[in-house]
Design a protein that fits this description.
alpha+beta, Arc Repressor Mutant, subunit A, AlkZ-like, Winged helix DNA-binding domain-containing protein
């Protein structure tokens, strides 16, 4: 009879978050690249999330440190990758993300765009015209150095043509070709987003050419991404990894096998850790270093697993998520989500606990709210995906 698999409890999983995700004060990082690698990528669909997620984990929070990495050193790059979500990852990890997920997504995005252009555009489009326009776009960006979509459209008028999305539906809309095509060229690895026009919360950013990412063997890239994710988020289930990456079941199982992932037993059932990562007697436990955090909507820790019952009370899902499954700003205490927060128009950061957290937690959360207010200064942040509790607190 085989030995039973090691059991890892929800409390042990929560104890790991403070250190591995750099949320405990002693674990905070000096540079944003260390933050991005610790969580295997910062969610970047909402521009503000990158800054808020990074600064929650930095010893000295400030937008300038994030801007340095994104726009000066360009040591962080944004890729349309896991789950068709934009992630900011380090340049070291970018080839892994590109070969394991981003390139396959770019292929699907191209096919979808071409289908929409053929069926819904105002003028005739085919593969030849799309290739011709793409070549013109890259030439225009090269000539300008960097340019917004509207500026490129001055040089390439085809970008101003429109596509009807969801025709015949109440929510039908008309999008410009440029809004879709430059995003595609970015997902294909030809363009990168530059410093936005306006504040760091703005989505009005110019584009610039970027050197192509190195090609890695796809299977090796998937294994490396799985290894990094499991080291940061493990223990976790096969379903968690499949959900986070957007891979097929076959690819997920192959990647786990390729890295020699060790089986463990979780409250949800079978789980995995990277080899040698079963908790030992010397591993910190919950309460060794109490910590509080105010994390933004779509933060990688909050969105790191498909099964969230070990850190999120199911009764709190409704106030903290929007109707599409996007989590809003959350308040954490020792590895659990215990409430939500928002910033009001006057700049005040307000929060509410959804459960009794006690005096120690209340004081710690209040200190984090003051820390957040301190580095935000005059900046006002409204999440792109608003949730019931965030709207209520912000009003």
């Amino acid at each position: 009879m085989s030995d039973p698999l090691p059991r890892i409890t929800p409390a042990q999983r929560r104890a790991r978050l403070g250190q591995r995700h750099l949320l405990a004060p002693s674990a905070r990082a000096a540079r944003v690249e260390a933050v991005a690698d610790a969580v295997v990528g910062l969610h970047a669909t909402d521009p503000a999330t990158v800054y808020l997620s990074a600064c929650a984990r930095l010893r000295e929070p400030g937008a300038g440190e994030v801007e340095r990495a994104l726009y000066e050193d360009v040591s962080l790059v944004k890729l349309l990758s896991m789950r068709r979500t934009i992630f900011a990852v380090t340049t070291e990890l970018a080839p892994v993300v590109g070969s394991s997920t981003a390139r396959a997504i770019a292929v699907r995005e191209r096919a979808t765009l071409l289908k929409h252009l053929r069926e819904r555009a105002e003028e005739h489009w085919d593969e030849a015209r799309l290739a011709e326009v793409e070549k013109a776009v890259l030439a225009a960006v090269a000539e300008r150095g960097e340019a917004t979509t509207a500026e490129v459209a001055e040089d390439v008028p085809a970008l101003r043509e429109r596509i009807v999305m969801a025709p015949g539906k109440p929510y039908a809309a008309r999008q410009t070709v440029g809004s879709r095509l430059l995003r595609l060229l970015a997902s294909d690895g030809h363009l990168r987003r530059c410093r936005p026009r306006g504040s760091w919360t703005s989505s009005l950013y110019p584009w610039a050419l970027v050197p192509p990412l190195p090609d890695l063997p796809v299977r090796e890239a998937k294994a490396e991404l799985a290894r990094r994710w499991l080291a940061a988020y493990g223990p976790a289930t096969e379903a968690d990894l499949k959900w986070w990456t957007g891979w097929t079941v076959t690819d997920t199982r192959r990647a786990l096998a390729d890295i020699g992932a060790e089986g463990v037993t979780l409250a949800e059932g079978p789980g995995y850790v990277v080899p040698g990562d079963v908790p030992g007697d010397d591993e910190p436990v919950a309460g060794d270093e109490p910590w509080a955090a105010l994390l933004p909507g779509l933060d990688p820790t909050a969105m790191g697993w498909q099964a969230r019952g070990w850190y999120l009370d199911p009764d709190h899902v409704k106030p903290l998520f929007d109707g599409s499954g996007n989590i809003g700003p959350t308040v954490w205490w020792n590895g659990r989500i215990v409430g939500g927060w928002a910033q009001r128009a006057n700049g005040e950061v307000v929060w509410r606990a959804l459960t009794d957290v006690g005096r120690e937690a209340t004081a710690a959360v209040a200190a984090e709210a003051a820390r957040l207010s301190g580095w935000l200064g005059e900046v006002r942040v409204t999440p792109r995906f608003r949730t019931p509790l965030e709207r209520e607190l912000a009003s």
